[in-house]
Specification:
By secondary structure, this protein is mainly β. The protein folds into three domains: 34-46 and 228-302, conserved putative lor/sdh protein from methanococcus maripaludis s2 fold, CATH 2.40.420; 50-58 and 151-226, Efflux pump adaptor protein, beta barrel domain (Elongation Factor Tu (Ef-tu), domain 3, Beta Barrel); 61-148, RNA polymerase II/Efflux pump adaptor protein, barrel-sandwich hybrid domain (OB fold (Dihydrolipoamide Acetyltransferase, E2P), Beta Barrel), CATH 2.40.50. The chain contains two helices and 22 strands. The protein has helices spanning 2-23, 95-104, and strands spanning 34-40, 42-58, 61-65, 70-74, 82-83, 88-93, 117-120, 125-130, 137-138, 143-148, 153-160, 172-176, 182-194, 200-206, 217-234, 239-240, 247-253, 257-262, 265-268, 272-275, 285-289, 298-302. The chain has a six-stranded mixed β-sheet with strand order 16-17-18-22-1-21, with no helix packed on it. A hairpin with a 5-residue loop joins strand 12 and strand 13. The chain starts with a helix and ends with a strand.
Length: 305
């Protein structure tokens, strides 16, 4: 009897233990958050540019030529030297003058005919080519030197004809040099012809105050489209599918939850993208780094903090 009682008690104890174990819920697993970097939706002025290649050229060049046949008796210039309007470039002595040297000893009145003949510069400029030196023989009309006038410096820009509506005389532009120096200039001229092969038209940008070498390659940027006070996001925040048909960002809400937010991109720069006004607003937090292939409603932690 006693043994039967003990068996029943043991059986009830086992059943009770099993029931208690079944009622215990398994411990919940805490999801690990993904570390990301974030930025903000902001308002900015945004512009897209057309960029063209240009080259510097001097429009006005002047040749210095010999005005008589003879020998260069004095010429003290070198390439790169400047010369002013009316300044003596060189002097020339002729064979006839050499022959008169003995006659002057007999008749001193002939001395006025043996002075070297002067060659002067007709413009103020810089010598870019020099073809003679002292004691060289020259014939009348020979090219002695080439001058350029610094204030005639222009940038020649070839613009494809498809962009004719965006480039005209008076258009503001930005000139970018190879050392990354930039300055603002204005289109000042255009040539009324089209290059047959490239189908481009040449425009001119006058730079009278700039000291730049000729044949320098530069870039010219002109505003193509612009939007003022546009809603913008960092370019790194924008994501898209393989077909480039859907665009979205990952918006952070409640400090730790990333949700997928569809957007429509408009203008773009190297760092910003304009988006169409929608569910996003200024100062919304969006993920800029770490959102690639992230699923909607993912827990994140902000590395910026």
């Amino acid at each position: 009897m006693r043994q039967s009682y003990l068996k029943q008690l043991l059986f009830l104890l086992i059943i009770s233990t099993i029931a208690c174990n079944n009622n215990n819920e398994p411990p919940s697993e805490k999801k690990a958050s993904i570390n990301v970097e974030t930025g903000f939706v902001k308002q900015n002025d945004i512009r897209e540019y057309l960029t063209f290649n240009g080259v510097t050229q001097y429009q006005k060049k002047e040749n210095i030529r010999a005005n008589v046949t003879g020998y260069i008796s004095r010429m003290n210039y070198k390439i790169g030297d400047g010369i002013k309007l009316g300044q003596i470039f060189a002097t020339v002595r002729t064979k006839e003058q050499d022959a008169l040297k003995d006659a002057v000893k007999i008749d001193s009145s002939l001395s006025k005919f043996i002075s070297p003949i002067v060659i002067k510069s007709n413009v103020t400029g810089i010598i870019t080519a020099l073809n003679v030196s002292n004691n060289d023989y020259v014939a009348e009309g020979d090219l002695l030197a080439i001058l350029v006038q610094p204030k005639s410096l222009v940038v020649q820009v070839n613009v494809p004809f498809e962009y004719e509506d965006y480039v005209a005389i008076g258009t503001l532009c930005e000139v970018i040099l190879q050392n990354e120096e930039t300055f603002i200039a204005t289109i000042t001229g255009e040539l009324p012809t089209i290059d047959v092969t490239a189908q481009s038209q040449m425009f001119l940008i006058s730079l009278p105050e700039k000291q730049l070498p000729e044949n320098l390659n530069v870039q010219v940027r002109i505003v193509y489209k612009e939007a003022l006070n546009a809603l913008t996001i960092p370019k790194t925040a924008l994501q898209t599918n393989e077909l480039l048909t859907d665009y979205w960002v990952m918006k952070v809400v409640k400090d730790s939850l990333a949700i997928k937010q569809k957007v429509k991109p408009l203008l773009r720069t190297d760092s910003l993208v304009q988006i169409e006004a929608g569910d996003l607003k200024v100062n919304d937090v969006i993920i800029t780094v770490g959102a690639y292939q992230m699923q909607d409603s993912t827990f994140v932690s902000n590395a910026n903090k």
